[in-house]
Structure formats: C-alpha cells, structure tokens
Amino acid sequence: MKVIAYGAHAGDKPLEPLQITRRDPGAHDVQIDIAYCGVCHSDLHQVRDEWGGTHYPCVPGHEIVGRVSAVGAHVTDFKVGDLVGVGCIVDSCKHCEECDEGLENYCDGMIGTYNFPTPDAPGWTQGGYSQKIVVHERYALRIRHPEEQLAAVAPLLCAGITLYSPLRHWNAGPGKKVGIVGIGGLGHMGVKLAHAMGAHVVAFTTSESKRDAAKALGADEVVVSRNAEEMAAHTKSFDLIVSTVAVSHNLDPFLALLKRDGTLTLVGAPATPHPSPEVFNLIFKRRSLAGSMIGGIPETQEMLDFCAEHGIVSDIELIRFDEINGAYERLLKGDVKYRFVIDNATLAA
Ligand code: NAP
Ligand code: ZN
Prior knowledge:
This protein is of the alpha/beta class. It has helices spanning 41-47, 97-100, 150-153, 159-169, 185-196, 211-217, 228-232, 252-255, 279-283, 297-310, 324-332; strands at residues 2-7, 16-21, 29-38, 64-71, 83-86, 89-91, 111-112, 132-136, 141-142, 177-181, 200-205, 221-224, 238-243, 258-266, 288-291, 316-319, 339-343. The chain is built from eleven helices and 17 strands.
C-alpha cells in the first residue's frame, strides 16, 4: 500500500513530502496508523549521513505511537484499535542468544526502524515520519498511559528506553549518585527515570538556561559543566554517569567525578570519535568506561509500564511536518525543551 511520508533525497537536502510503499500485513504482522512520532537526534545524524551509509530517500523516525488498524491471521496479542508503540527495532534473527534473552537490540541481525536492509521496497527500512507502519507483532509495544498523553509517550520508545536500560543495568536506585550529561531529549528522560528509581540525580548541562528547568525534571542538583569549580565540587563522588552528548568531547572531566569502581556510560553517538581518555583516570580508581544501545523488547515494555505507573512522559513541543527542517536546526542549538514530536495527522493536511 502507498502511504505519504516525509523524508530526504540527499544528505544536504531538506525533508519533504514523498510517497513510500508498506507491505500488506503478513500472518504475524500488525499494521499501525501512526498518530505521533518523536524527533530523535539520531534521525538528524542519519538523514544528513553523519554516520555514513544512509540510503535515500531516507524516512527517519523511531519513536512511533498510534493505533492498530489491521492484524495478520496469527496475531494473538494485539487487535484493531489497540494503542501501541514501535521503537528503534522492527526485526531481528529471533534465534540467537541475544534474541532468546530478549536483548534483540544486541542481535547481529537486528533490523532498525530506518535505513536497515529489508525485503520490502525500496530495500531498506523507512521510519515513522509516515502515515502507517507494518511490523512483526514481537516488535510492537503496548501503551498503558491515558490516550491524552499519547504524543508525550512517543519519545519513551527511544529516548526513554535508551536511558532506562543503562540505569537498570548499572543499578541506579536508592543510595546511588547518578549523573546525566546533556539535558536534551535523552537526558531529560534520564533525569526523570533516575529520580523515579530513587537515585540522587545530578544533571550536567552546558546551558545556563536549563539550570532551573532541570531541577523541575527531578534533578537533586544541577551542574553547568563548563564551570570547572562546579565540576570539581563533585570529584570522586558518582556511582554512575550516563552521557547523552551528541558531539565529540573530552571525557576526562567526567571520569574524574566517578568514585572507585564507578562507570561512565556513553549513549550519545557523535559523528566523530571522542579523544581517548587519560588512562590513569581509569586505572587509579578501577573506573569503567562503557556504552549502551537502546534496550530489548521486554525491557522496553517494562520501561513503558514503569512510566505509566509513575506518571512519566516526555516534555514535548508538538510540531507539524512542515516545521521539521526548522526543528532540526533548533535541535542542533539545543533549543528544545526537551523533545520535538510530530503530529502525523499533518501529513494528510
Ligand atoms: P539532543 O536532544 O540534541 O540532546 C543532546 C544534548 O547534548 C543537548 O541538549 C545538550 O544538552 C548537549 N550538548 C549538545 N552540544 C553539546 C556540546 N558541544 N557539549 C556538551 N553538551 C552538548 O539529542 P538526543 O536526541 O538526546 O540524542 C543524543 C545522542 O544520543 C545523539 O548522538 C543520538 O544519536 C544518540 N542516541 C543514542 C542511542 C543509543 O542507543 N545509544 C539512542 C538514541 C540516541 P545541554 O544543553 O544540557 O548541554
Ligand atoms: Zn533515537
């Protein structure tokens, strides 16, 4: 079936309306009418080919929420009308150790929601800046938030799980001091989630203007990271710091804030590598430098249910599709509190 989408024909071209083809739902597929789609910084990296290997036309978007509009004959968990989400994963091999453990995000055969190979036309996946998507039921998530919150739930599908997973893996909770670096789409979810998990949360921002705003999100303390004195006050005190920064930067000032056995986990995916950290910053306190990528499907469901139970959604700015190119420019300036979400109804308008 043909659906309207928004995408780019080249890395240096703006996004514009275009038509794409979705497969008809197979026996295990659900077809979703997309209501809203969040705007992740990864969308911008991909559309502008900052990581290399982008296929065009590129239709990004992996923070998808909407309603099931058709199901295949063998689908048992979902029915027409259900509120569902799709995140960054639309397929995986389904039989490796990672898939068996529900860690589809680490399956070598993981198929991302955009720019990954697929037998469907045009040969690579196309994301949520579109009217409909069709996915295998395994990769659809149930949304238990009230429907009025649907637009603000969308960013949980990537920003939410990308912070929830490392916070759980490195045991954020009562008695733990946790830092979140970069208070953008991912980072603001990190502050909310770590706070809800009971950790002592410190938000690190380069933007003086976010100092009060970060407190309102649930940060116990806010540090403007360009201020060396403020940074020094937290030396050797953190159990875990998660960095969401989307550009290459010096990691040493953050490693120095970890206590013995502390971990700095990188989730930001800049186009150019960070300079290698000073090795003694790791050796002296047995510190770890780690990375983490989104989360598996069961953990994404767990995160959505945790957020529904704790009343957690993203702070969003709702936009129309014809505002997307301007939104990308603002994203690059850190000028959004904290996530753009597109109203997919504006595709048809
Ligand atoms: P975003 O909304 O643009 O947030 C990034 C934040 O980083 C900004 O709001 C800003 O926060 C901070 N920042 C920007 N420039 C900086 C600089 N020069 N120095 C220090 N801090 C700076 O982006 P996002 O959507 O949260 O995504 C963040 C990164 O994570 C992207 O690279 C994205 O591709 C990646 N990502 C990774 C995964 C994964 O699975 N690992 C998943 C999704 C996204 P302040 O204003 O507070 O400083
Ligand atoms: Zn994302």
